[in-house]
Structures are given as C-alpha cells and as structure tokens.
Amino acid sequence: MTIDPFDETIHDEVTAPLGSEAQKAEDAIMLIIIAGNEVDFGKHFTLEKERILLGRDSGNDIAIHDGKISKAHCVLSVIKGGRGVEQIGIRDLGTTNGTFVNGEPVVQATLKAGDKIQIGDTVLQVSYNDEIEQEYHAKLFHFAARDALTGLYNKRYVLNELENHGRIARRYGRVFSIILIDLDDFKQINDRFGHLSGDEYLKGFAGLFFRSLREQDIAGRIGGEEFLAILPETAVDGAFQLAERIRKHVEEFALEHQGGGIRTTISAGVCQFGDNIASIQELLEGADQALYEAKKSGKNKVMQAPRPAATSHE
C-alpha cells in the first residue's frame, strides 16, 4: 500500500505497515544532527506532531541556526497507525538552496530510518529510538554542551548562541541584552575553605543564577568564576533590573560549611545589542567594561555599559 504522507485525508486508522519499516508504537521518531555547526552535534528532536516545520526562523517547530537554511525550509509529515509509524514524508518549501535526502535533491520524498536530510550545511539523520536510546543521545549532547561542574552551558556553546542571536537581531531588528557576571574575591574562598568548597559554592551559585532566569534565557559559565546570560527580546533596562535581583540573591546566599556559611558577592555588567553596538565583540567589550567599572567602584554592584553616541552621517 502506498501512502502519501501529505494527503490530508489520511487518518489515524491507517494500519498497513510499510514492510520492514514499520516500527513499534513505543519507539520515538527522532532527527539527530550529525553534521553542521560543531556545537549542534548530537542535538536531537523527537517528532511528536503530525506536521513539523524546519527552518531558520525561531517560529519553526525545529529551528536551526544555519545561514544557508531558509526561514521556512521544509516540512515533515508523520503518519501513525496501530502498529506505530506508517510513513514519514518530507517536502521542500521552494527554497533557494534546496533539500537533499541521502545526497539527492528532492521536492518531496518518503523517509526511512537511517536516511540523511541535508538543509544548508546541516545534516540530520532519521532514527527510531526507544527510551534508553533517547536518554543516550540526550546525555551525549549534555556532555558536549554543558559545563561539567555547574551544569550550565559551557563557553563554546554559549558564545556560539550569542553569535546566533546577533545574526537574528541584525536580520530582523530584534532586541537582546547580556549580563556578564564575576564572583567577587572568589580566590579568597578557595584559599580559606579549599577548592572543593569553592566548587560547591560555584554549583550553588549556578543553581541560583539559573533559577533567576526565564525559560528562553541562556546561562553559561565562560571562565573560572565568570558567567554570561543571554536575554532574548530584552532591552538593557530589563537586563539591569534582572542583574540587580541576581546580585541581591547572591548577597543573601550562604553555603553551609562546618557550622558556618561561605558568602561572597558579584559584580555585573549589562549591555544591549544595537544602540550602535553592531558586533558581538563590541557587545562583550561593552559588558566587560561595565563589569570593570563595577569592580573598580567597590564591587557588589551592577553597571550598565554606556550607550555609544550615534555616528553622524552629515
């Protein structure tokens, strides 16, 4: 039986399996990134909906930061029956760079386990996985993208996300800000209480830091005691208020240690992309300069990067 996965008259009662390609109902259909941007390796997406849009825009079901991918690039259609998945189809949405399956350009095609989809420079592989395999892929990505001590994103991942947000902001005129945080006098904690206690404090701070953010915000550790937050759709005033809340939480936080408490404070610099800050390097330098001023003026402070004067075109 041939099934058109894009035929909207197909319903869930379709049960005829496609030979050996029919999968157990409990298996999950996944797309796993196996080539492209290095920080995306191992990223996986479970196909739970009947229709899944892929593209560069954040409004897609699967959004991939790849400059060669169209805003809405292709669509997947999944038909399920009583025995599990009956068919997966893919259709290109009239893109400039095209959609490829196993190296061949396609307008519309049927997919099976093991097939490789290339859009832009990104290659995704179709896979059917049970819960154990899903957990395995999740752990692989976790190890690649997360800081081993704090569980926050690592420097490589968070700086790549910063570049991605810069590209989106430039293309669509969107606003975002960053907070650069440094723990004050952290060396004294290590010297007085030992490095193991210092590590425990970093973990405690990281949890506090993460809980202060929204779901869409990105938190990373970019140095020994230096941290970065990316705040999408947030102007500098909102970033400053959030940084102040974090500063107060840290000021009140104490890690229990031998009947006492380990305490410190933070200094932070905030900066907004835009306002004549046109590159990620300038954004980081602005936040770093504000952080330096916070340290210089007595620590335990949040400072906002000065807004550069507009360039005259007269």
Radius of gyration: 24 Å
Give the helix level as a range of percent: 25-40%
Shape: elongated
Order of helices and strands: EEEEEEEEEEEHHEHHEEHEEEHE
Rounded mean pLDDT score: 84
Structural class: alpha+beta
Distance between the termini: 70 Å
Per DSSP, the total helix count is 6
Largest sheet: 6 strands, antiparallel
Strand content: 25-35%
- The stretches of 5 or more residues where confidence is low (pLDDT under 50) are 8-26, 310-314
From the structure provided, what is the oligomeric state, counting identical versus distinct chains?
single chain
Q: Give me the count of strands.
A: 18
What strand line-up does the widest sheet have?
2-1-11-10-7-8
Structural account:
The protein is α+β, with helices and mostly antiparallel strands. 29% of the residues lie in helices and 29% in strands. The protein has helices at 131-145, 155-172, 186-193, 195-211, 236-252, 280-296, and strands at residues 28-35, 44-46, 51-55, 62-63, 74-81, 84-92, 99-101, 104-106, 108-111, 116-119, 122-129, 176-183, 218-221, 226-232, 255-257, 260-262, 266-272, 302-304. Strands 2-1-11-10-7-8 form a six-stranded antiparallel β-sheet. Helix 3 crosses helix 4. The longest helix is centred in the middle third of the chain and has 18 residues, at 155-172. The protein is elongated, with a radius of gyration of 24 Å. The protein starts with 27 loop residues before the first strand and ends in a 10-residue tail after the last strand. The model is unreliable at 8-26 and 310-314 (pLDDT under 50).
